[in-house]
Design goal:
With 258 residues, the protein is of the alpha/beta class. It has a single domain, classed as NAD(P)-binding Rossmann-like Domain (Rossmann fold, 3-Layer(aba) Sandwich), CATH 3.40.50.720. Helix 2 links the parallel strand 2 and strand 3. The radius of gyration is 17 Å and the shape is globular. The chain has a 7-stranded parallel beta sheet with strand order 3-2-1-4-5-6-7, with helices on both faces. It has 7 helices and 7 strands. Bound molecules: nicotinamide-adenine-dinucleotide. GO terms for molecular function: enoyl-[acyl-carrier-protein] reductase (NADH) activity. Keywords: Fatty acid biosynthesis, Fatty acid metabolism, Lipid biosynthesis, Lipid metabolism, NAD, Oxidoreductase. Its EC number is 1.3.1.9.
Amino acid sequence: MLDLTDKKALVTGIANNRSIAWGIAQQLHQAGAEMGVTYLPDDRGRFEKKVRDLVSPIDPSLFLPCNVQDDAQIDETFQAVAEKWGKLDILIHCLAFAGKDELSGDFSQTSRDGFKQALDISSYSLTRLAKAAKPLMTEGGSIVTLTYLGGERVVPNYNVMGIAKSALEMSVRYLAAEMGEQNIRVNAISAGPIRTLASSAVGGILDMIHHVEQTAPLKRTVTQTEVGNAATFLCSDLASGITGQVLYVDSGYNIMGM
Ligand code: NAD
C-alpha cells in the first residue's frame, strides 16, 4: 500500500506554488509522511516568508534555510533533522540553477564560472546532501532527484544544464550502488517541461512546451501533481526493488523519434 505514515521526509527546492518540489511535498504529506522543508535563504528574508506561508497547509515540523553551496548550512540542516526526528526516511532533491546567460545561444560560449556554478548547485549538491543524509537513514531510505531529457539528448538552449543533469543522473547510479547495502534507494524522475521559475530561464521554454503538447503520446505536458505522485511511489514500499533508475514522467515524450 502507498502509505508513508511514520516516514520522515525532507523536501528541498520549494520556491513558490509552481515548484515541482511543492507538488511532491503535497503528495508526500497526503500519503502520511511527516514533513520537513528547506528553502534558499536570501538577504532580505523574502523567500523565507513566501515559502513559510505556502507550506503551512502541510504543517512541516522542520523549516530550515539551506543553500546547497554552503557546507555549514547543509550540516546544520541535517543536525536539526537528527535532533528533531533522530532519523530520516525520505530526501527529495529538487533544485537546480544556471545563470540565464548560460541557457541560450551557443553551448561553446559557456563560461568557466557558469559551468562550475551550474554543476555545483545542480549536480554536486545531490552527493553532498546524500552524504549528510546517509547516517540518518538508519532504517533504509529513499532519495529522489529531478532530471530532464536534456541530460541525455541535446535540447536547444538547455546547454550547461544538460551537462549538469547528465552528471546528476550518473551520480544517482553511483550513490545507488554505494547505499544499496544500507537499503537506501536512489532514483531520479525525468520530468517533462513544466512552467516554473527555473524553467522560465531556459530560452524558448514555451516553444518546448508547445512541441511536447503536439508530439508526446499523451498530447499534453505533465503537472507538478503527477510528478509528486511518481515521487511518492518511489519513496514508498511499493518501489522497494527499484534503485539507480531514471523514471520518465513526461507524457511519454522520450520515446518519440521526432
Ligand atoms: P523552481 O524554480 O520552482 O525550483 C528550483 C529550486 O532550486 C528553487 O526552490 C530554488 O530556491 C532552488 N535553488 C537554486 N539554487 C539553490 C541553492 N544554491 N541552494 C538551495 N536551493 C537552490 O523550478 P522547478 O522547475 O520546480 O525545478 C526543480 C527541479 O526540477 C530542478 O532540478 C529542475 O531542473 C527540475 N526539472 C524541471 C523541469 C521543468 O520543466 N520545470 C523539468 C525537468 C526537471
